[in-house]
Amino acid sequence: MSTTQPILQVKDISKHFGGLIAVDRVSLEVYPGEVVGLLGDNGAGKSTLIKLISGVHHPDGGQIVLDGHEVSFSSPLEARRQGIETIYQDLALCENLDAPANIFLGREPIRRFLGLLNVLNRAYMLTESRQVLDQLDIKIPNLRRPIRLMSGGQRQAVAIARAVYWNARLMIMDEPTAALGIPEQQKVLQLVRTLRERGVPVIIISHNLQDVFAVADRIIVMRRGRKAGERSIKATNDNEIVSMMVGAEQEE
Ligand SMILES: Nc1ncnc2c1ncn2[C@@H]1O[C@H](COP(=O)(O)OP(=O)(O)OP(=O)(O)O)[C@@H](O)[C@H]1O
Ligand SMILES: [Mg+2]
């Protein structure tokens, strides 16, 4: 894998909240078509790290390089426009909008009405959304329903469909399966595999080691804001990862 160019390179990135160092000089790479599991105990800095990558927080130091170019996002929308799609643990989709509106959020198609007014092209949004959802085998019976009335799994699926529709360069998922029932968890993991098959790399944060071992190619472990280590799935096991999470192994 080292011969291909990484899609994402994070170099020595840091973030402080007052006196607290939430992310401390973390570096990582993500290559095309790989799923990277990001693990660590509560408060290890996982969510803060991905919020630095997705434009929610601005880093205090370090660099983010996307497709070989250094980037600096002023907002999550800007990160999305540059191909970084994120499903946040604590910031979901727009609850009051339906699935098509969420898929097109910030990138709505406009049509001329009576040759004068610019209006949203809802019919186009609906057809396109239905097509991408069908393509991914995602079943949402009534696409006009607001997101807030959907199940957790359906919401995740809509966010994944958005990433596929807009040809995301990178998909980031923070605890995507935490609030889901078992069939929905399986569906989301299946969609993660679909993304990988389409060449879209995924960073997935999860407390569920089983899920991570089921989908990830590589695991990065964080502990107290720092990267505690990194392993290929084939070269590690639960015990080693847990030891890295709690700090029972020697630091790298
Ligand atoms: N907006 C914020 N303001 C102040 N402190 C914050 C903020 N966000 C996170 N922190 C702190 O930064 C540290 C890392 O938090 P973060 O949410 O990144 O951890 P995490 O690894 O995602 O944990 P969890 O597994 O519980 O989601 C914690 O000590 C947290 O309290
Ligand atoms: Mg978190």
Automatic annotation (TrEMBL):
Residue ranges of domain ABC transporter in the record: 8-249
UniProt keyword list: ATP-binding, Nucleotide-binding
Superkingdom of the source species: Bacteria
Any Pfam family hit: ABC_tran
ATP-binding recorded as keyword: yes
Leader sequence segment: none
SUPFAM superfamilies per UniProt: P-loop containing nucleoside triphosphate hydrolases
Gene Ontology MF term list: ATP binding; ATP hydrolysis activity
This protein's name: Sugar ABC transporter ATP-binding protein
Source species: Ktedonosporobacter rubrisoli
